[in-house]
## 1
Amino acid sequence: MKQSLWKIALIGIAVMLMSACGNESTEPVEIDSKTDTCANCNMSVADNQHATEIILTDGKTFVFDDIGCMFNWTDENENKEIEKTFVRDYHSKEWIEFEKSYFVYGEEIKTPMSYNVISFEDQSSAEEFAEESGGSLLSYEDLQKHDWKQHKEMNHKETDSHSHS
């Protein structure tokens, strides 16, 4: 009987320690546009509304210049343990949690690598932008099924400074 109580107490302590080490304190890291390069395409990452990042459970951070590059990287690195993923609100450029964001896709929406998806902190802003741009509102779940096709003909039209490093 005493051994069972000890086992239950140890399991309870382990659960409390694991929950105390959760990802609530994980914060996005700032982008240094002079040195940061996209983990997928190796282009420089501008500190703008298109930047995204993934923080692994071991603390390693990967930055991306386009949300489509981030999806390509996660497809190719399925064995990596992701702690948290951040995107930026298109209007405010503030970091927001990827899973809690809303997205708009439209072939006319310009992004650094022409995946044409942008993120928003709130649904009403995303809906408004989708209506004005003729794009489609997407949820986090919709993005998991999205066809991540580049519209390369738009690459040369991008106005953000973007170069190979």
## 2
Amino acid sequence: MLIIFPGRRGPQRVMAGLFAVVVAGLVIVEGLDGPTLPAKIGIVAGGLSAVAVVLLAEARPSAVAVAAAVSVAVSAACVLVPAMRPEHTFGIVEFAALSVAVIRLVMQHPITRAAGPAALTILAIGLLPVRVFLHPVNVRTLSQDGGLVAAVLAAWVLFVALLGLYLRLLERRRVDADRLARQSERLDHARDLHDYVAHHVTAIVAQTQAIRFVTGSGAAPSPADLDALLAGIEKAGVQALTSMRTLVGILRDETPAAVPGTLEEMLTAVAGTLPPGYPAPDVSLDESLALRPLPAATLDAAHHTVLEALTNVLRHTTGTTRIDIVIRAHPDRKGLAEVSVRNDGRPASSPLPAGGFGLTGLSERVRAAGGEFSAGPVASGWQVSAILPVTGPASDDRRRGRR
């Protein structure tokens, strides 16, 4: 496949095609400088084969080796047959095309695979000027400046090889950066999917378990209690669908969703998501932080810390009578805020899959915001904590704090 066509359309293809025609025309013009028909054919064949290799989408080692072999053969013929030596040009286009071929070869292939064809191509480049300098008219020039010419050629091929290696390094760094960016994006999406959808689905499961527990005990719930439980399931289902729709919308068009602007707004949105039967969280919010503009990543991490802690209350505890959400300025570390959620529930088995990614994803999110994360049992239950910076560069990036 030719490099001038993939990814190009309309005028770009026309311009690329015209460029290829012009380059081929220059090769033919240079070939006409040959003193004999075999010399003309040899110079044109060497030039066109080198140009063809450059036009390939991939500098295949075999193709580069063939072009280099053709060039070396023509140069050798010029050395052995005086009648074939051109007077004015040795093939400038061929020289340039072979140089580009070496650079692309080193860029696109492992050194072990590119070394042989690259060495042959460098030899071809080094022999090209010999075609002209052995012409009787130019022999004197060669005898006078042969050392300089050799030095320039050596410097040129060294430059070509090093340039290829440098561009190869840049290409590898670009590929690594792309892979890391894709991995980060996948993790980001996975965290969002877990945090928003899992919370509401867990609420549905918890309320369904409550209904089964009541009916299983033989004491049928009153119509009012049953209606309240079903209303809770309905609400959690609607919230799950809304979160899923929002997440899909973001994945489709990268449109940022609404995001709470302050900690107070965030807590108002999150604290009321627990279903009936669970205690309303006791919220303590430092007044100095309540309405303060925070970095988007900090607000997002605080939001997810509270949300994940409440999800774990639904999922992993029983007999919970108290949930404390505390957000305060860190007493010992200036410029930091401490977000903690503690519950007094007892560990409980859950029908939901164990070994989830909630705390792992939350830890990644907090660290990405420049904070510290911890979670574990305390004297009277379980606590999830995050220490987050309250200052940072102003950012319009809503990706981190988009909901």
